[in-house]
Design a protein that fits this description.
Layout lengths: L33 E4 L13 E8 L14 H12 L6 E8 H11 L4 E6 L1 E3 L5 E3 L10 E7 L3 E7 L7 E3 L1 E7 L4 E7 L15 H11 L5 E6 L24 E2 L21 E5 L3 E7 L8 E7 L2
Parallel strand pairs: 2-3, 11-12
Antiparallel strand pairs: 1-4, 2-16, 3-7, 4-7, 5-6, 5-9, 8-10, 10-11, 12-14, 13-14, 15-16
Helix pairs in contact: 1-2
Length: 303
């Protein structure tokens, strides 16, 4: 089914350009599968704490996507591990991560940590798709992921409308049985993502797909949504469905009627979100110093 042309004014373009290198054939299979890494050792249960901190962070780890000056691989991995240790995040939603860096950080965090990874895909004008390799040998494919201390199960790549030509991002969900919740990580397509149809809007359909897959209450979902909050000054506010900010509350939402939050991008925009139907007990914005996105951390009561 073809998408209609955008009903909104042209959205804000991301500050850094997207220069995608078509993947080598060895990485092609990564574009269509979800890679899940689980520990073989017994996993510590955090259910007794009745609290869980979930973070989302666009690592800007794909060097060729304007990220060459945002920090080295080792610096980014260090900041990722600090989110898990010093900041106390037990589940981390990641965007623009490299598979090799994710696996390295997971191993260094310890045997009890788990991850699920989904590679980005580049679709060309003939309809062929391929994974996008990270620039440095050994980094593997570029993608988005869930890194978790509690075990992950029922990992699912959620179907959503994607550009007909260009970078295809996506939605990845998993269940965290230790807390009886579902988490979903989304990376949405900013305006201009479809190289064949630059005026087509995808975020409205992608948000609908995201909301449709999460339960009403026991969920935490979000990621890099590439859109400002649905306030009156946002011409693209129509892309937002009713559930975010309504049925569910956002990490930095001060009241039921509020539609704002602290900036999470160096441009001064809020692009990163965490929504939940659970009681919120804390929200923080953390500048890692190694990305153009700040990390967002939400603490919820799960008991």
């Amino acid at each position: 089914m073809l998408l209609m042309a955008s009903r909104s004014a042209s959205g804000r373009r991301r500050g850094r350009g997207l220069k995608v290198v078509v993947a080598v054939l060895a990485l092609l299979s990564l574009a269509t599968v979800v890679a899940v890494t689980q520990s073989a050792s017994p996993t510590r249960s955090f259910a007794s704490a009745h609290k869980l901190t979930v973070a989302t962070w666009n690592m800007c780890g794909v060097r060729q996507w304007g990220c060459a000056t945002t920090g080295s691989r080792s610096e980014k991995k260090l900041q990722l591990k600090r989110l898990a240790t010093r900041a106390g995040a037990r589940v981390i939603l990641l965007q623009e991560a490299c598979a090799g860096d994710l696996e390295s950080a997971r191993r260094e965090l310890g045997a009890s940590w788990h991850s699920a990874f989904r590679a980005y895909k580049w679709r060309n004008s003939t309809g062929s798709t391929s994974a996008v390799p990270c620039a440095v040998r050994g980094q593997g494919a570029a993608g988005f992921a869930i890194l978790s201390a509690p075990a992950l199960s029922h990992v699912t790549a959620v179907a959503s409308r994607q550009p007909s030509v260009g970078l295809q991002r996506g939605i990845l969900c998993a269940q965290v049985a230790a807390h009886r919740i579902e988490v979903c990580n989304a990376h949405l397509s900013p305006p201009g993502s479809d190289k064949a149809h630059p005026g087509w809007e995808y975020r409205d359909d992608q948000l609908k797909a995201l909301v449709a897959t999460v339960p009403k209450r026991r969920t935490v979902y979000g990621g890099d949504l590439n859109v400002d909050p649905p306030g009156v000054n946002n011409p693209a506010r129509w892309v937002w469905p009713a559930a975010p900010y309504g049925t569910h509350r956002e990490c930095d939402q001060s009241s039921g009627s509020a539609r704002s939050g602290r900036p999470t991008h160096l441009s001064g925009h809020k692009l990163d979100y965490l929504f939940t139907g659970l009681p919120r007990s804390g929200c923080a914005v953390r500048d890692t110093g190694t990305s153009d996105h700040r990390a967002l951390l939400l603490q919820v009561r799960t008991g």
